[in-house]
Write a structure and sequence with these properties.
Layout (H helix, E strand, L loop, with lengths): L3 E4 L2 E4 L15 H7 L2 H4 L3 H17 L5 H19 L12 H13 L12 H37 L4 E6 L2 E7 H26 L1 E2 L15 H7 L4 E2 L3 H6 L2 H27 L7 E2 L18 H24 L14 H24 L1 E2 L1 H8 L6 H10 L4 H18 L8 H7 L8 H4 L1 H6 L9 H16 L2
Parallel strand pairs: 5-6
Antiparallel strand pairs: 1-2, 3-4, 7-8
The structure holds arginine.
Length: 473
């Protein structure tokens, strides 16, 4: 029945609403616009169609609909997919979302039999399915991008194996380390993110379809078959939980927030290193921009933007956690608001990984400048103290003695290497000529042989291990 209703806002109608049965008045135009999600959930069209095809196939297999009906439905859905891909699909706000837009079009194309697709299904389990299908594909792409960057970091570590930098703590020069050691630190960070995505993927990869509106269905469906058709290793256990649950999106966004925090720190390091004050890297013309007023400038905008976009993902995390907090069981329309944070997170993370990956291709490390930063600042003072303690002096005293030596050298405008042995001996009789081999840059670095330390031997081993790990990914 077609009911047309008028008021001061204009005409609004129940025409074509797929759920109009019990309604006498149509949805208010303002309400229709307010509640429609088609603008953004049309991104899920492929997943929606894929899920419907599997559902129709199962319905026919179980004798719930006829095989020829399923064939018609599948054929219609495939045509619709082509229409959407070609940009020829008439998306309509009045049909709210991607599910109803496709279903309505299916009925238009193949007649009333199209309406059989929604047998034993609700939009509540349908939307959960679409998002799980979508997210599992995107997580795999993100992992692929992460793999590329990780691999690249190991290449850079290998290529720059002899470059040395100060280890900074409190942004103060601390001890000499290999640049490769720090590059491999980035590798470790991203490896943990990768593991988190893989873990999250396990919980995304569960079939929700078959939960219906939340209570299950009266039809003799075969959820295992749908899982097999859609390549889900698992079927959800509890129908109420299935339509209530958005943990899989929360986990994805939280994992992404952690990754973005890492990307932001990596970016910040490059921003700092590209300043004239540090001058440790050249990010390349392709990834820096000029200033519209100061002709000399080369700004690290890409790194800054990665740092900046981190905030968006944190925002998405807060949005989805807040959205879910306090929702009664099971499905609530609030949950439609889960999609934009999810899409935005996917887009942001992928864009940042892509630009970082490209940036790493053009980055040049200025090892001469790095070395210069090591030549002042008593960078091997810890090695002097360790030397004394190896000879039996309690470390607290070694620390104090070394502090005095540093102060003495500073007063004379000299570095530790410039002091002769008799000067050292004035502070402690334990000093011998062999001291010098521990307080050169190489001496300092290569004596840090403890597991995970910066000795070149260790770092070379880390590179080898990383390569082995990557080859198993
Ligand atoms: N567009 C809805 C969403 O994204 C689909 C599920 C709606 N279910 C319902 N019964 N209104 O959450």
């Amino acid at each position: 029945m077609l009911v047309i209703y008028w008021n001061e806002f204009g005409r609004y109608t129940l025409k074509n609403k797929l759920w109009a049965g019990r309604f006498k008045k149509g949805t208010h135009k303002v309400a229709e616009k307010f509640s429609a999600s088609i603008d953004f959930d049309q991104r899920l069209y492929k997943e929606d169609i894929e899920g419907s095809i599997a559902h129709a196939t199962m319905l026919a297999n179980e004798g719930i609909i006829l095989k020829k009906e399923a064939d018609k439905i599948v054929k219609g859905l495939k045509q619709i997919e082509k229409e959407i891909s070609a940009g020829k699909f008439p998306f309509r706000e009045e049909f709210e979302d991607i599910h109803l837009n496709i279903e309505k079009r299916l009925i238009e194309k193949i007649g009333d039999v199209g309406g059989k697709i929604h047998t034993a299904r609700s939009r509540n389990d349908q939307i959960a399915l679409d998002m799980r299908l979508y997210l599992r594909k995107e997580i795999k792409e993100i992992i692929y991008l992460l793999n590329n960057i990780s691999d690249h970091l190991v290449d850079l570590a290998e290529e720059n194996i002899d470059a040395k930098i100060p280890l900074y703590t409190h942004v103060q020069r601390g001890q000499p380390i290999l640049l490769s050691h720090q590059l491999l630190a980035l590798f470790e960070m991203l490896k943990r993110d990768r593991a988190r995505y893989l873990d999250c993927l396990k919980r995304v990869n569960v079939l929700p379809l078959g939960a219906g509106a939340g209570a299950g269905t009266t039809f003799p469906i075969n959820r295992k078959l749908v899982a097999k058709l859609l390549n889900f290793p698992e079927v959800s256990t509890n129908s109420v939980d299935t339509v209530s649950d958005r943990d899989f999106i929360i986990e994805f966004i939280s994992t992404s927030a952690n990754l973005m925090m890492h990307l932001s720190r990596i970016s910040e390091e490059f921003v700092l290193w590209s300043t004239k004050e540090f001058d440790f890297v050249d990010l390349g013309d392709e990834f820096t921009t000029g200033s519209s007023i100061m002709p000399q400038k080369r700004n690290p905008d890409m790194a800054e933007l990665i740092r900046g976009k981190t905030g968006r993902v944190y925002g998405n995390q807060v949005a989805i956690l807040t959205l879910m907090k306090g929702l009664p069981f099971s499905y609530n329309r609030d949950m439609q608001e889960d999609k934009e944070p999810m899409f935005d997170t996917v887009d942001t993370v992928k864009a940042c990984l892509e630009v970082l990956s490209a940036m790493l291709n053009s980055i040049k490390f200025k090892s001469e400048n790095m070395k210069e930063a090591l030549n002042e600042g008593f960078i091997t003072a810890t090695d002097v103290a360790d030397y004394l303690s190896r000879k039996g002096l309690p470390f607290r005293q070694s620390h104090e003695v070394t502090g005095k030596i540093v102060s003495y050298a500073e007063g004379k405008g000299l570095e530790l290497m410039d002091l002769n042995i008799s000067e050292f001996k004035k502070f402690s009789k334990l000093f011998e000529e062999d001291l010098y081999k521990y307080i050169t840059l190489d001496g300092s670095i290569n004596s840090r042989k403890s597991h995970g330390g910066t000795a070149k031997k260790n770092v070379l081993k880390m590179i080898k291990t990383a390569r082995k790990e990557i080859s198993a990914w």
